[in-house]
């Protein structure tokens, strides 16, 4: 809890300030925190009835969906704990209340993170000096080999840059003017002068976000992953929000290689998109960029007609449902779980006007001045040196028998001012109904996560590269590679291993 509090303060004070002329951002953020506190424990337990946090973490390494550092590394614990902090400040709960929920949510988070971060060995990006090296060697080898060279001014470079600019704008809008639909992982070393950054664009098509129904009908992929080689800069920060900083500052001219993939819970890994040739990839970027621009215009028109309650709901759902893809992976996603406001959170709607929300959120994650956040005057908070802390700890007195309320209970039927979700979901197997999607997800297990291969990490490969099992392991990620299909461990490993 303390670690998440310290990281929340650092992220909120050092990253880009968020605001909007359309959405009541502060209000919907607070609304989402309250919804998360009341719903995350029961929804995570529902997911684990089907699939453990460790299994989810293993699967998450093999797809570019909403299970990254921003979504699971920071948002899951932070949204939940900040919702608790809100209720503590209102005097509605005590520090010891919901103790069993708190322990469970943080235990789920820790188990997921340790599984997903198996290759870098860290619980958060913060622990790794703000970097994330999630992907295994065998996948990075394919990404590096299959990228097409590009340079400033050539058709591929221009098309890729145009696509990423348009898609970033679309993702920002579709996430209600927040950063939750795009993400970065890395950096990875390509050689002495070049680095690899992996960028994910998520929830692009008709997906679980109700406001993309119809708007995104012509976008054929729900998730797209761009692999990007850079030269002339060093990414010294890729933080738990998936934001990056580099020295010198990264500019498009530094991009020297590019690749494109799609993935989801049904794909069994990353599937190349338009990767047959540089010309095909150029045309693919142009086509997708045009589709994205058209969807962006349609989405602006839809959102411009929303009431404040609809804007508030959509923003709250964007934040609260940031971990919804866990339910998609497990095949237990239900619209009412993730796109309704719990009645216990609904009680606060009238309180969350813009003036109050801006001030309260500023105190909660910025100045850290709420009475519940104050600690001993001898305390020096990390990063601020003030006598305060973002998150109130659990009191140890419950171990000695002090009374506490164990849980907030199950999910209660909620509601929303938004239009109902249309029963259409864009997947790597085409458009499906939700029942079809859930059934397919329950039946899908990538070969790489089968019992035979699941625990064959990079350390094992280092000492067993000569074996048939290692060879077959590498062939799994090479199946769709343009340059490495069937080569197994025949390619020399990084560092001459």
From TrEMBL:
It comes from the Bacteria. This is Uncharacterized protein. It comes from Croceicoccus ponticola.
């Amino acid at each position: 809890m303390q670690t998440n509090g310290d990281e929340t303060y650092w992220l909120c004070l050092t990253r880009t300030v968020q605001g909007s002329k359309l959405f009541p951002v502060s209000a919907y953020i607070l609304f989402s925190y309250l919804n998360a506190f009341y719903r995350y424990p029961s929804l995570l337990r529902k997911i684990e009835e089907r699939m453990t946090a460790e299994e989810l973490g293993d699967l998450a390494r093999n797809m570019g969906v909403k299970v990254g550092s921003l979504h699971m590394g920071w948002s899951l614990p932070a949204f939940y704990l900040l919702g608790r902090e809100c209720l503590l400040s209102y005097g509605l709960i005590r520090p010891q209340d919901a103790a069993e929920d708190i322990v469970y949510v943080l235990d789920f988070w820790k188990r997921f993170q340790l599984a997903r971060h198996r290759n870098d060995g860290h619980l958060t990006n913060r622990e790794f000096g703000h970097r994330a090296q999630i992907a295994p060697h065998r996948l990075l080898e394919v990404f590096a080999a299959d990228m097409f060279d590009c340079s400033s001014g050539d058709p591929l470079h221009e098309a890729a840059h145009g696509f990423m600019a348009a898609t970033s704008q679309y993702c920002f809008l579709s996430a209600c003017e927040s950063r939750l639909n795009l993400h970065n992982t890395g950096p990875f070393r390509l050689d002495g002068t070049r680095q690899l950054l992996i960028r994910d664009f998520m929830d692009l098509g008709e997906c679980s976000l109700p406001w993309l129904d119809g708007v995104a009908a012509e976008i054929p992929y729900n998730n797209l992953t761009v692999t990007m080689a850079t030269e002339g800069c060093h990414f010294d920060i890729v933080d738990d929000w998936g934001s990056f900083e580099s020295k010198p500052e990264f500019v498009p001219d530094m991009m020297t290689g590019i690749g494109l993939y799609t993935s989801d819970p049904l794909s069994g890994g990353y599937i190349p998109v338009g990767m047959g040739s540089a010309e095909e990839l150029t045309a693919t970027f142009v086509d997708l960029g045009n589709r994205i621009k058209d969807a962006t215009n349609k989405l602006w028109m839809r959102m411009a007609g929303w009431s404040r309650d609809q804007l508030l709901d959509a923003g709250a759902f964007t934040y609260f449902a940031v971990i919804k893809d866990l339910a998609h992976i497990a095949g237990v996603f239900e619209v009412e779980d993730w796109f309704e406001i719990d009645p216990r959170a609904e009680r606060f709607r009238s309180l969350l006007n813009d003036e109050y929300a801006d001030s309260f959120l500023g105190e909660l994650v910025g100045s850290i001045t709420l009475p519940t956040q104050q600690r001993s005057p001898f305390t020096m908070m990390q990063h601020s040196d003030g006598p305060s802390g973002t998150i109130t700890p659990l009191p140890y007195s419950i171990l000695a028998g002090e009374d506490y309320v164990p849980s907030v209970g199950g999910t209660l039927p909620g509601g929303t001012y938004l239009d109902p979700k249309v029963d259409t979901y864009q997947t790597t197997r085409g458009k499906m109904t939700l029942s079809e999607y859930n059934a397919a997800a329950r039946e899908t297990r990538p070969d790489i996560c089968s019992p035979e291969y699941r625990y064959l990490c990079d350390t094992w490969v280092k000492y067993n590269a000569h074996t048939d099992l290692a060879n077959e392991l590498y062939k799994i990620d090479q199946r769709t590679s343009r340059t490495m299909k069937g080569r197994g461990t025949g390619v020399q490993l990084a560092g001459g291993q």
